[in-house]
Design goal:
This protein is an alpha/beta fold and 258 residues long. Helix content is 36%, strand content 21%.
């Protein structure tokens, strides 16, 4: 295999155990196996097994993939998806609230990502902003409104550092960025989606408030958030994609000029 196309054609199938012809034109991304299971149940398709590194399922023209955690995996999945060139790609992820305004179960619709992860520097210079496809975020906003869900907008700080909740200096820096939330994937997905000419957006669920000791995520608190909000999160993602498929909201206008 000498070309990028040859590599990603082979690797997308290898990581997901799914033939290229089975991928829909609209892709939901997640970090969680239970989100894939919820997607299968809501879409009325058979649950998929656990033999793939990246579990994937398709219902109609929508595919959901669990690509794993962290910005390197986020960059990898966007490179691999260049094989099938999806018309839209939406990340359904969890995040930690930085702002005092956010509470568990709140939705954040990112207007931009702050590239604190380093991975995206292999794709663009550091000064290039990480931005979502506007019309894709607009479709998500419509789906949220249709479900009578409130949401916050703002920036999300993406870091490659997993254990930082004890570090007061880093937490002080996060506050200075004025970001609404912190995660490990969003800015990378936006940057690498743009690099690969894939319209990309995100809808994040606040799953913890790591700026205070009592708000740091535990297994118990994460289970509470998942049981209370995960199904709605996935359903809104599906409905946003159906809005695009039905051309009520479109990302076709998006241009990639170099």
């Amino acid at each position: 295999m000498k070309t990028k196309q040859e590599i990603v054609d082979n690797w997308l199938q290898r990581y997901t155990k799914m033939p290229l012809e089975n991928f829909g034109d609209h892709v939901l991304l997640t970090n969680f196996n239970n989100y894939v299971d919820i997607f299968c149940r809501l879409s009325g398709v058979n649950a998929v097994g656990f033999d793939a590194n990246m579990r994937a399922a398709t219902a109609g023209d929508i595919t959901m993939i669990n690509f794993g955690m962290g910005s390197p995996n986020a960059a990898l999945i966007m490179d691999l998806l260049s094989s099938v060139k999806p018309k839209a790609c939406l990340f359904l992820g969890k995040c930690g609230g930085i702002s005092d305004k956010t509470h568990l179960g709140d939705y954040i619709l990112p207007l931009a990502g702050i590239r604190g992860e380093g991975t995206s520097n292999d794709y663009f210079p550091p000064e290039v902003p990480a931005l979502p496809a506007f019309m894709l975020q607009r479709a998500v906003s419509t789906a949220l409104r249709d479900n009578t869900c409130d949401y916050w907008t703002g920036t999300v700080y993406t870091t490659n550092r997993r254990v930082w909740e004890h570090d007061e200096r880093f937490k002080s820096y996060l506050r200075e960025t004025r970001a609404m939330a912190v995660d490990m994937e969003t800015a990378t997905l936006f940057s690498c989606g743009f690099y690969n000419h894939i319209p990309t957006g995100a809808l994040l669920l606040v799953s913890d408030n790591p700026m205070v000791p009592e708000g740091i995520k535990t297994e118990e608190s994460d289970n509470r958030v998942t049981s209370s909000f995960a199904e709605t999160h996935v359903r809104i993602g599906i409905e946003a994609m159906k809005l695009i498929i039905g051309e009520r909201k479109t990302v076709r206008h998006l241009k990639f000029d170099w």
